[in-house]
Design a protein that fits this description.
Number of strands: 36
Strand content: 35-45%
Distance between the termini: 158 Å
Number of helices: 14
Largest sheet: 29 strands, mixed
């Protein structure tokens, strides 16, 4: 009736597999339970003993890993509490490498800390709390800048930048941080102490103070970190920092997520001082000098970027706003800024090109003029800091709405500055001026031993009446336009040196238009016509300009007229001579040749002399004195009427061909309409601009 089940029966095989699975599961659970038990036991042993027995193993392993001598003189504890790592050591020292100036990198009387375990597994160092008593930390670079004291392990591996672990809370007493960076000429010693606060909302306040030098400039700093009550989970720390250096004062305030965690923190900065350049000197970078300044901004650190946003303030009598980012891509300092000014005072532009800001502050525009060997000089001679601009790169966009200036209405300045490894470009630099537009591209190459500057400046057609309004011209009756271009190259590390060695061309072109009679007639010394028009109340009758060109060829800093030629309805005005960027001397003569008969015409040149900073206009030239002497002799020997004959202009000047004039051609290509040569307009050949001579008086009245 019953069937016997054999060993090889399927049901028996299923039963055996189930029993085997149960046994394996039991074994696995036993192993896991044993491991857990051992972990709990190890944890319990560590917790009970505080891991004190691990001290020699810690010293040996830590010394081997860091390639330094690690020693604990007193009590030692290392255990999980309950999950995070608790570390306690008395008399802990970590030695420095042999090249360092101090024996130990770190030493302390007591260090007691709690380190987050789980973040540490994923490579994030976070200290939940730290108690440090009488600690000394030595942060030092070697003289080559390739090794430092905090990069542990293999001494041949690349030195890493210093990164503080995130410390949530700290109590520090009697601790000093020492930092040395010989390549940056930077030395700092900071004392840190924690002060218990009586305010129950605060746990403690970490105060720090100290100072040092950077590039031989001393500085001091002080501040505090106010930690919130520890009952506030993940609380924040209020930072307050005050620093002074070279007359600059810096204040930083805000809130940090941790005592050493500045990443993403929203901070406020205030800085003021006599010269913004002296502040940037501490970064080892060169920026233009300024007059006294005051700035506020927000400050945030994102990765390797330090971002200054919402910047507002003043320098001198000008306002400044915008944003700036300082970063270190490829371990090279880079500055990126977007700045703007609503009103820029022209005096505040002076320091940018080398004028002394203190003199400008005290004397205004007159501070740009200095005496050099008894003569006035206005071209700035402050050297470009060529070595400093090799240390960083920059991109700056700067916009100005209005320029406060007496003589010329300038507005809407737009500047793009690019600095790439000592090649500085101001391109483009544009602004509106008196109804016209000026555009320029300036390149300063400091990559070469002798700095090379290229100038390309272009003035679009601009109304002469508006441009010269401050110099006696009026828009009423003046329709003439003016356009210009300057193309030069110079060698030298200052504006003066660059121009004093420059070669190139300067050209100002005047297309057809009208200009006030008074101004033109005074230039011609056409006394008869001027007086006649004055009494006939026709002083403002326009003089018609057919075309004009005022051009100079520049060779080795000496500019020679090439040509000076203005053709009007009644006259041909020519000029010769030139000026020197070397001495800043002027030696020009301008003379008019009438196309029609004129009585009492001087027919002699007006001299323009002196210096850039102190020009003179001398209508009493040698030719006029000779003519006056001849006239006086004729009057005495013959009659007064005969004396007048010496000042009669027969009016034999020919019309000028305006094509070459409007094309800005050189003097050798200028000609009259009938093909004749135009004389007295310069030749473009270099001349020696002499020192101004003492002006002689004529009959004691001039």
């Amino acid at each position: 009736m019953y069937e016997a089940v054999g060993e090889d029966h399927p049901q028996q095989q299923v039963r055996r597999r189930r029993e085997l699975g149960s046994n394996l599961l039991g074994i696995g659970l036993s192993i896991v339970a044993t491991i857990i038990g051992l972990v709990i036991l190890a944890w319990a042993i560590l917790f009970i003993t505080k891991g004190r027995f691990l001290k020699p193993y810690f010293e040996r392993i830590a010394s081997n890993q860091t390639q330094r001598t690690v020693d604990v003189a007193g009590d030692f504890q290392l255990f999980l509490n309950p999950i995070d790592v608790k570390f306690y050591a008395e008399g802990l020292t970590i030695s420095n490498p042999a090249w360092a100036t101090r024996k130990n990198f770190f030493e302390s009387k007591v260090i007691d800390t709690n380190i987050a375990t789980i973040p540490l597994i994923f490579g994030n160092r976070r200290v939940n709390w730290l108690n440090l008593l009488n600690g000394n930390i030595d942060l030092e670079w070697d003289r080559t800048g390739t090794r430092n004291t905090w990069t542990m392990g293999d001494p041949n591996k690349k030195a890493a930048p210093f990164e503080m672990p995130v410390i949530r809370r700290a109590f520090v007493a009697g601790t000093t941080v020492r930092y040395r960076a010989p390549q940056m000429q930077f030395v700092a010693d900071i004392k840190i102490d924690t002060v218990r606060a009586t305010n129950t909302r605060l746990d403690n306040e970490i105060r720090f103070a100290g100072g040092g030098t950077m590039r031989q400039r001393p500085f001091t700093l002080s501040g505090s970190l106010m930690s919130p009550n520890e009952t506030v989970a993940g609380g924040r720390n209020k930072l307050s920092l005050h620093a002074q250096a070279a007359g600059n004062v810096l204040d930083v305030s805000g809130t940090l997520r941790g005592a050493t965690d500045i990443e993403g923190a929203a901070l406020k900065t205030q800085v003021r001082g006599p010269n913004l350049a002296s502040l940037f000197d501490f970064l080892g970078v060169a920026v233009p000098d300024t007059r006294r300044y005051r700035l506020t901004s927000n400050l945030t650190k994102r990765g390797g970027d330090w971002r200054f946003t919402g910047m507002r303030g003043v320098f001198g009598d000008s306002d400044l706003a915008g944003a700036m980012t300082i970063s270190m891509p490829s371990n090279r300092l880079n500055i990126d800024a977007d700045l703007r000014s609503r009103v820029l005072d022209i005096i505040d532009v002076g320091p940018w090109v080398g004028y002394n800001p203190q003199r400008l502050d005290a004397m205004g525009a007159k501070g740009a003029i200095v005496q050099d060997g008894g003569r006035p000089r206005i071209l700035p001679d402050a050297p470009l800091r060529a070595e400093a601009i090799k240390n960083f790169d920059a991109h700056v966009d700067y916009r100005v709405t209005t320029v406060r200036m007496d003589n010329f209405p300038i507005s809407n300045i737009a500047l793009t500055l690019d600095l790439d490894r000592a090649l500085l470009k101001l391109s483009p630099l544009t602004f509106d001026i008196s109804g016209g537009h000026l555009a320029s591209d300036i390149s300063i190459n400091a990559r070469v031993p002798q700095v090379i500057t290229d100038y390309d400046i272009r003035l679009s057609p601009t109304p002469m009446g508006r441009l010269l309004a401050k110099f006696g011209a009026e828009e009423s009756g003046t329709t003439g336009m003016i356009k210009a271009r300057v193309q030069m190259r110079g060698v030298g590390d200052s504006v003066h040196k660059s121009l004093a060695s420059s070669n190139g061309r300067i050209a100002v072109i005047m297309p057809a238009g009208t200009f006030w009679t008074r101004n033109v007639q005074l230039a011609e010394l056409d006394i008869g016509t001027f007086v006649q028009k004055m009494f006939e109340k026709k002083l403002k009758d326009p003089v018609h300009i057919n075309c004009g060109l005022i051009a100079f060829t520049v060779r080795d800093g000496i500019a020679a007229a090439d040509p000076i030629l203005i053709d009007t309805k009644k006259n041909v005005i020519g000029g010769r001579g030139g000026f020197s960027f070397k001495t800043e001397g002027l030696d020009l003569a301008v003379e008019a040749d009438a196309k029609t008969f004129s009585l009492l015409s001087g027919q002699s040149p007006i001299g323009v002399g002196g210096y850039f900073a102190a020009p003179t206009i001398d209508p009493i030239s040698g030719e006029l004195l000779t003519r006056a002497g001849v006239g006086l002799g004729l009057s005495v020997l013959a009659s007064p009427l005969a004396g007048i004959l010496a000042f009669v202009d027969p009016g034999n000047a020919e019309n000028t061909a305006c094509g070459p004039v409007l094309a800005g051609a050189r003097a050798n290509r200028q000609h009259e309409r009938d093909g004749g040569k135009v004389k007295g307009i310069g030749s473009g050949k270099p001349t020696t601009v002499e020192e101004p001579k003492q002006k002689k008086k004529f009959l004691g009245i001039f």
